[in-house]
Structures are given as structure tokens and as C-alpha cells.
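Data availability (excerpt). The following record was deposited with the supplementary files.
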Amino acid sequence: MAGGAFATSGGGGEFEAKITPIVIISCIMAATGGLMFGYDVGVSGGVTSMPPFLKKFFPAVYRKTVLEKGLDSNYCKYDNQGLQLFTSSLYLAGLTSTFFASYTTRVLGRRITMLIAGVFFIGGVIFNAAAQNLAMLIVGRILLGCGVGFANQAVPVFLSEIAPSRIRGALNILFQLNITIGILFANLVNYGTNKIEGGWGWRLSLGLAGIPALLLTVGALLVVDTPNSLIERGRTEEGKAALKKIRGTDNIEPEFLELVEASRVAQEVKHPFRNLLKRKNRPQLVISIALQIFQQFTGINAIMFYAPVLFNTLGFKNDASLYSAVITGAVNVLSTVVSIYSVDKLGRRMLLLEAGVQMFLSQVVIAIILGFKVTDHSDELSKGYAIFVVILVCTFVSAFAWSWGPLGWLIPSEIFPLETRSAGQSVTVCVNLLFTFVIAQAFLSMLCHFKFGIFIFFSSWVFIMSIFVFFLVPETKNIPIEEMTERVWKKHWFWKRFTEDEYTNDKIANADYQL
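Predicted structure:
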């Protein structure tokens, strides 16, 4: 695959582009932002099930889980707002910082935004690893959250813009793959640090997040900014040189001219957020927001944040629960690799629809088993059932990892036109973090009140989102970003009514202006 080139076809289509080493290296470096995000998601679930950590920061939970076993309902052991705030404060900070990140992505470029993210990450890691009280812990999480906001804003846009369109899907999924590797790495670290005598293992768990933080910061110093970003900021010649460099060919004129034209149109838009609300941008906005809400309501983060806590609740002992979380983390990584190979071949819709069926069935079966086998005070799932629940959770996670996980980020990053891309990505990240925050803050309380019904709750959402995809999400594989309107929206049975009227009005307005 590397080194292959496609000539430009007349009337739009593929531009000539080799898959150059600089593209591969830039994408790997940029995607370490995902590694950091994943590590933060995975590590919080593990440390919150470690007794020394609970004893120091959350004595009330420590009493319920360690000292007063059997007094409280199985499903309610970890129901504590402070504990949930430790996990969810990161997403709230990410949500707020996204608005600033949208501005820096547009004005300072994608590379500088990734650098800012790296600096925030390093600050957060220092506070967390050295935490002496809950306030230091929460400040560290907030700094990490700011890093997440900046990284999630810049990285998917950077990857979409630097990748040749025929492998855009695969390269973009590098971000999601690194999130899953980060989660797995965190689970393995937690499994190891939990065995450390002296009760300081959790500090090591939180401190090792410094590795991906440093990788992202160094990566941001080394990579080249995207041609789109350089042209958008008026540095046309630098943009042209960067395009030659990343495409590995001198024949870049057609793509360069299209980027300049897209940038000219974008410059005319003075208020990108207001422009987002225009009727012609309705399809992209609705789909992006819906995908983010649905991605969280699959229940995946509930399972990923709290996998060790969840398995503890089901009666797995502490070590076994961290071990089970490692297994689900590994399945997550492998299934995301499946997505990288299949997304540009099978297409986006096919993966989303197949996964919907798989996730729906696995959650319903989990709910049935838990309904019969885990009562409020029974302590054990028999070994056979316990293994079966882990297999079902893995079935669910694998389906998510080759569909809603990566595609929830990929589709929004490729459907917005340049003039609203930064604002669109901002809204996408915001909605994602808002609903991640809601689920993180509410999950342990929901588990306490819904009990096994929580899986029925999530499976009914999976059913709704599959219907949405079937009717309203068009296929976008192998379509250059600048041609989405002509080739996707204007041909879709439902969305075409939003694009046609608006573009006709724009043309009439332009004609009047010229007269």
C-alpha cells in the first residue's frame, strides 16, 4: 500500500497522493493525544477500586466496600457523588476548554493546539501523582480535562486533513486505536500497581500518564502543520510546500487549488458558529450531535470507566476484576484494528448497523443473567456465569470498537465543509464530553437504582441509534471532503431538501450581487 499513487480523475475524485513516511509519522505522533485520553479513562476505574486510594480520598466508600461488607446492596457499594466527581471532572473541564481550543485550532493552527494539550496533560499528571488531598486530585483531573479538550479538538481534524482521502478512514481511526491502547495500558498498569505493598501503587498508576503526555508534546514540536491550516491562515506558499511534502509528488496543483478555493470560501464566513446553524449545514450538525449522544448511550464508557468496579459489584474479587478489565481492554484494541482494515472497504454504515445488532443482543443477555444471578446481597456469580458475563462484555466491547467508537469521531471530522469544520468539531467534542460527563457522574447511582436494568436501558438506546443510522446516516467512504455536498447530501433521500433550497438561494444572492 505504501508508495502507491492515484492520478486525479477528471471532475473531482482522487488527487494524486503517495502514502509518504511523513504522513505516517505525523499521524502516529498526533494520535498519541488519543493514547493520553484512553489512559485517563482506563486509569480512573482501576484506582477507584484500590482500597489504599479509597481510604485516603474517599473514606465513606472505603467503609462500605472494605469494612462493612454485606451491609449495603451489591449494586450500591460505590454510589458516591465525590467518587463520581473524581472521574467526571475531567470531562467537564474538557467541555469548557473545547471552546478555547476551537479558536486556537483556527487562528494558531492544529499543531500549536496539540502542543497546548501536551502542556496541560503534563501539568495534570504532576498534580495527580503528587496529590495529598481531594482538592489536588480534582485540580489534576481538571488540567487533564483541558488537555483532553484541546487534543480532541485538534487531532481528528489534523488526521483528516493530512491523510489522502482513500485511507482517511484508516488513519483517522489511529486516534481511536490509541484511545483503546491507552485504556489497555492503564488496565495493565493498575493490575501491576495494585500488588505493590505500602499502598502507593495508585500514585504510580496516575504518574505513568506522563509517558503519553510527553510523546504528544514532543510530537507536536516535530510535526508539520496541515496545508489546510496554513492556507486558512494566509500562508499560501508554506501550505503549498507542506502539501508537496506530505503528498510526495509535485503534481499537487488540482488539490492545492481546491484547498485555496475552500479557504477563500471559509474566509468569507465571519461567524463559523452562527454559520453552523444555517439550514444547509443542518444534516452535518444533526448527524454529528446524534452520533456523539448515541456513542455515550451505548453504555461503553460506563463499562470502560468502571470495569473493575463493575466486575467487583458482580462478585469478582479485586484482582480478578482488574484482570477482567485487562481482557476487555485487549478486545477493545484488537477490534479497533479490525475497523482500520474494514472502514474504507466495507464503509461506515455497514459497520454501524452490524455492531448495533451485536451490542443489542449481548446487553440483553447480560441483563437476563444478572437479573437472575446477582441479587442485592448475593456475593458470588458461579465461575461459569462469571466467565460468560466477561465473554458477553467482550462481545459488546468488540462491536463498539469497530463501529461507534472510531466512527463517532471519524464521520463528524469528514462531513463538515472547511468554513465550519473547526466550529463543527468543537460542537462534536463538546456534546461528546457533556454526555460522557453525564454518564460518568450518574452511572454508579444508576447502577444502584436500576440494578441489572441498566443494561436494558443501554440496549434500548442501541436499538434507537441503529434505526437512526439505517435511515439518516449516508455512506461517506472514499469521498473527498470538499465534495461531500455534491456527492452525498444532495443525493440523500431526506437531507437533500436542506441543501437544495439553501444553495439555490445562495446562487440567487450571488447573481443579484454581481448585477
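Summary of structural features: Confidence is low (pLDDT under 50) at residues 1-13.
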